[in-house]
Input
Amino acid sequence: MIYGLTASIFTKDPARAFRVARKLQAGTVWINDAYTQPTEGIWGGYKESGIGRELGLYGLEEFLEIKQVYIDTTGSLDRPHWRTVMKIDKL
Output
């Protein structure tokens, strides 16, 4: 299959349901239910059912860019030679 947005498993054997759920390539798997989704839940699929995730913490992370910024507040330029700050005229 080329899609994998959701799947439902109906069974009386919870252990078997979890084994099957682990193997399914779907973004959301319901066991003995279908299409119940809390607003804070994660929404998104596998394969050609979209990229990324919406809602929940994983959804929020899709909109973030991570950046590190360092600042030397000591005012000292006494650094080891391998950390020498070089002037660059052109980028």
